[in-house]
Amino acid sequence: MTIVKIVLEVVVILASVLLTMLILLHKGKGGGLSDMFGGGIGSNAGTSGAAEKNLNRLTIIVALIWVAIIIALDLISKYKLA
């Protein structure tokens, strides 16, 4: 069972890095520090294309996988399965 735990730990690390990158890829919605200095003047915060929708879906899927693995690792540790 230790092999399963090690694999899950590696996958959660990879998912964490991927989730961080996916979140950083999202378009800013305005109201941040960049708007204070004029960075958000020409942006359309209300529109969302197909790429943005797919990025949202992928981010949600990776986040759900990340949460599921965290719960699985907790259950493994709690019941001393590994």
TrEMBL record:
Q: Which lineage do the record's taxonomy fields give for this organism?
A: Bacteria, Bacillati, Actinomycetota, Actinomycetes, Bifidobacteriales
The Gene Ontology terms for molecular function here are:
protein-transporting ATPase activity
User: Could you tell me the membrane topology recorded for this protein?
Assistant: Multi-pass membrane protein
User: Where does the UniProt annotation locate this protein?
Assistant: Cell membrane
Q: Name the UniProt key words of this record, in alphabetical order.
A: Cell membrane, Membrane, Protein transport, Translocation, Transmembrane, Transmembrane helix, Transport
Choose one Gene Ontology CC annotation of this protein and give it: plasma membrane
Give the family this protein belongs to, as stated in its UniProt record: Belongs to the SecG family.
Tell me which positions the record assigns to the signal sequence.
none
Q: Please give the function described in this protein's UniProt entry.
A: Involved in protein export. Participates in an early event of protein translocation.
Q: Where mainly located? A: membrane
Task: List the PANTHER family.
Answer: PROTEIN-EXPORT MEMBRANE PROTEIN SECG
A GO BP term here is: intracellular protein transmembrane transport
Q: Coding gene?
A: secG
User: Which named protein is this?
Assistant: Protein-export membrane protein SecG
> Where do transmembrane segments lie in this chain?
7-26, 58-76
| Cited InterPro entries | SecG
